[in-house]
Design a protein that fits this description.
By secondary structure, the chain is α+β, with helices and mostly antiparallel strands. The protein has one domain: Cysteine proteinases (Cathepsin B, Chain A, Alpha-Beta Complex). It contains 13 helices and 22 strands. Strands 7, 13, 17, 18, 19, 20, 21 and 22 form an eight-stranded mixed beta sheet that branches. Strands 6-5-12-9 form a four-stranded antiparallel beta sheet, with no helix packed on it. Strand 10 and strand 11 form a beta hairpin. Helix 4 packs across helix 9 and helix 7 runs antiparallel to helix 8. The radius of gyration is 23 Å and the shape is globular. The N terminus is likely disordered. The structure holds zinc ion. Zinc ion binds next to loops. It comes from Zosterops lateralis melanops. It is an enzyme of class 3 (hydrolase). Keywords: Hydrolase, Protease, Thiol protease, Ubl conjugation pathway.
Length: 432
C-alpha cells in the first residue's frame, strides 16, 4: 500500500500536461499493477517452491529450448522501445557491471538514515533515482529466478524525469536511449553520499584522454564507455579558411545513403546491397553544405558556402551506431526499410580515424554485442525487439519472451541501433 501512495503522487504531473482521459487510464493501469504485483508475488512464491527441487536451467518456449537464466521484460503498454534498449545495455558487460556493483540505496544510506543522501542533481527530487531503478532492473536480468521482470518502477521514474516519454504511445527507442544515457550521466555526476563517483572513476582508471569527451562536465561511466570525439572540419569555399571543432558524441547517427533508400528486400539481383560501411562512409565523406546552411566565415566576415567533413578523433569503448530509418517528408514521418548489411565481428573503424597511426593494430576493431530492431512501418506504431550476445550465445529479446537464436538470424535483421564493443588486445600481446 505504501508503494501505491507514492505512485499516486504521479497524478500531479499527469494532470498538468497530458490529456485528462489519460489520468483514468493511468489510474486503471496502476490498479492493475497493484493487483498483478500481489498475485504475481504469490504466484512467484508458489512457482519457486515448485521449481526449487528441479533446479533445471532449461525451459521450453515456443517449441524451442531457451535458457531459463535469460529474463524478459514485461510490456507495460507500448514499452517495447524501453525493453529493447534495456536488454541491449544489459549485455554490454563493462557498463552493466558498473551499475550492478553499486550498493543499493538502503545500504548507501544506512537503515536509520532519515532521508536519502543519494542526490539526483538533474531532477532536483530526492525521492526518485534513475540510477537506482536502472541498477535494480539490471540486477533482475540474468538472475535465472524468473522468466520475466516487470520494470514498472523504472518506467515511473522515466515518466517523472523525462516528460517526452509520458503516456502509452509508441516511442522512438533511439531517442529514449539518448535521454536515458544523458540522465544517468547527470545523476552520476551528482555523486553518492557526498563522494563523487566520477572522481572515483577517474582515479581508478586511466581516463585522462576521455576528459575531453564529457558531454557535460566530469566523466562518468556513461562517457567513459560510450564517449568518443568527432573532429568537425569546415572549409570556406570562397577563401579556403579551415575551421576545426571537437564534438563529443555518445553515438553516431548515420544516414542510409539515398541510392539505397527505396530498396525494400534483400535482393542481390537489383544492384549492390547497402552495407554499414556505405553508411559510415557517407557520414564521414566531404560534404558540400546547402545554400540553406551557409557558414559564418571569420576571414570573409560573412556567411559563405562551405564544405564539411567529420573525422573520428577518439573512438569509444562501445560504439553505438544509429541508422536513421525515420525521415520527415512534409507532415509524415516515413520509415526507410532498407536492409543494411553489418558485420558481426571485426568492424574496422581505422579508416575513419583522424590519426590512425596513433592507434594500435587491434584497437580499431569492433565486435557486435547487441542490435535493436524496429518492426512495422511507422515510428508511432510497430514493435521493437533486440538481439544480444551473452556468454557467446545470441538471444532474441521480445518483451517478456526470450529465445535462443543464431548468428545467421541476427545478421539478417534490419538493424535500427547497433552496439559494437572494442576488441581487447590479446593477453600477452603487450609483452612482445
Ligand atoms: Zn571565407
Amino acid at each position: 500500500i505504501k508503494n501505491i501512495q507514492t505512485y499516486y503522487r504521479c497524478d500531479d504531473f499527469v494532470v498538468n500536461d497530458t490529456k485528462l482521459g489519460l489520468v483514468q487510464k493511468v489510474r486503471e493501469h496502476l490498479q492493475n499493477l497493484e493487483n498483478s504485483a500481489f498475485t504475481s508475488d504469490r504466484h512467484r512464491k508458489r512457482k519457486l517452491l515448485e521449481n526449487s527441487s528441479l533446479n533445471s536451467k532449461l525451459l521450453k518456449v515456443n517449441g524451442s529450448t531457451t535458457a531459463l537464466c535469460a529474463t524478459g521484460l514485461r510490456n507495460l503498454g507500448n514499452t517495447c522501445f524501453m525493453n529493447a534498449i534495456l536488454q541491449s545495455l544489459s549485455n554490454i558487460q563493462q557498463f552493466c557491471c558498473y551499475f550492478k556493483e553499486l550498493p543499493a540505496v538502503e545500504l548507501r544510506n544506512g537503515k536509520t538514515a532519515g532521508r536519502r543522501t543519494y542526490h539526483t542533481r538533474s531532477q532536483g527530487d530526492n525521492n526518485v533515482s534513475l540510477v537506482e531503478e536502472f541498477r535494480k532492473t539490471l540486477c533482475a536480468l540474468w538472475q535465472g529466478s524468473q522468466t520475466a521482470f516487470s520494470p514498472e518502477s523504472l518506467f515511473y521514474v522515466v515518466w517523472k524525469i523525462m516528460p517526452n516519454f509520458r503516456g502509452y504511445q509508441q516511442q522512438d527507442a533511439h531517442e529514449f536511449m539518448r535521454y536515458l544515457l544523458d540522465h544517468l550521466h547527470l545523476e552520476l555526476q551528482g555523486g553518492f553520499n557526498g563522494v563523487s563517483r566520477s572522481v572515483i572513476l577517474q582515479e581508478s582508471s586511466n581516463l585522462s584522454a576521455s576528459n575531453k569527451c564529457c558531454i557535460n562536465g566530469a566523466s562518468t561511466v556513461v562517457t567513459a564507455i560510450f564517449g568518443g570525439i568527432l573532429q568537425n572540419e569546415v572549409n570556406c569555399l570562397i577563401c579556403g579558411t579551415e575551421s576545426r571543432k571537437f564534438d563529443p558524441f555518445l553515438d553516431l547517427s548515420l544516414d542510409i545513403p539515398s541510392q539505397f533508400r527505396n530498396k525494400r528486400t534483400k535482393n542481390q539481383e537489383s544492384g549492390p546491397m547497402c552495407t554499414l560501411r556505405d553508411c559510415l562512409r557517407s557520414f564521414t565523406d566531404l560534404e558540400e553544405l546547402d545554400e540553406t546552411e551557409l557558414y559564418m566565415c571569420h576571414k570573409c566576415k560573412k556567411k559563405q558556402k562551405s564544405t564539411k567533413k567529420f573525422w573520428i578523433q577518439k573512438l569509444p569503448k562501445v560504439l553505438c551506431l544509429h541508422l536513421k530509418r525515420f525521415h520527415w517528408t512534409a507532415y509524415l514521418r516515413n520509415k526507410v526499410d532498407t536492409y543494411v548489411e553489418f558485420p558481426l565481428r571485426g568492424l574496422d573503424m581505422k579508416c575513419y580515424l583522424l590519426e590512425p597511426e596513433n592507434s594500435g593494430p587491434e584497437s580499431c576493431l569492433y565486435d557486435l554485442v547487441a542490435v535493436v530492431v524496429h518492426h512495422g512501418s511507422g515510428v508511432g506504431s510497430g514493435h521493437y525487439t533486440a538481439y544480444a550476445a551473452h556468454e557467446g550465445r545470441w538471444f532474441h529479446f521480445n518483451d517478456s519472451t526470450v529465445t535462443l537464436t543464431d548468428e545467421e538470424t541476427v545478421g539478417k535483421a534490419k538493424a535500427y541501433i547497433l552496439f559494437y564493443v572494442e576488441r581487447q588486445a590479446k593477453p600477452g600481446a603487450e609483452k612482445l
